[in-house]
Amino acid sequence: MTKSRGIGRGGKRAGAGRKPATVTIVDVQEFRGTVADLKTTALETLAHIMKHSKRDICRVSAAKIILARAEQEAKDIGKKGAALAKAQERASEGKFAPPPPPGSKLN
């Protein structure tokens, strides 16, 4: 077998490998505020189109989008309420339930 003549055979090399990702840190509250503002603006725009457009198809499309959005939010609120009620029910009984207050009739 012959010797290598100054040619590397692998190993650590400068500049090799995956470059580190640049991470942008975003303030979550600021981001949520921006998204909420954009949602409000979008709904106001759709409402304006629905009320003032001369084309029926535009008014109907805007109305459908607004109704779909309202229906989805109502479903989400219903799901959250049901999940909260279920969690409260589970918390009031079972292994992790808080003990009854002293002097109560349940002791």
Structure, briefly:
With 107 residues, the protein is mainly α.
List the helices and strands and how they pair.
Layout: H1 28-52, H2 56-91
Helix pairs in contact: 1-2
Please, could you describe this protein's structure?
The protein has 107 residues and is mostly helical. The chain has a domain at 29-91. Helix content is 57%, strand content 0%. It has helices spanning 28-52, 56-91. The longest helix is centred in the last third of the chain and has 36 residues, at 56-91. The protein is flat. The model has no long low-confidence stretch (mean pLDDT 80). Residues 97-107 have a biased composition (Pro residues).
Largest sheet: none
Ranges where pLDDT stays below 50 over 5 or more residues in a row are none
Sheet-strand content, in percent, reads: under 5%
Rg, please?
A: 30 Å
Supply the helix-strand structural class: mainly alpha
Number of helices: 2
Mean pLDDT: 80
Total count of strands: 0
Oligomer status: single chain
Shape, principal axes of CA atoms: flat
Helix content: 55-70%
**String of helices and strands:** HH
Calculate the terminal CA-CA distance, rounded to whole Å. Answer: 87 Å
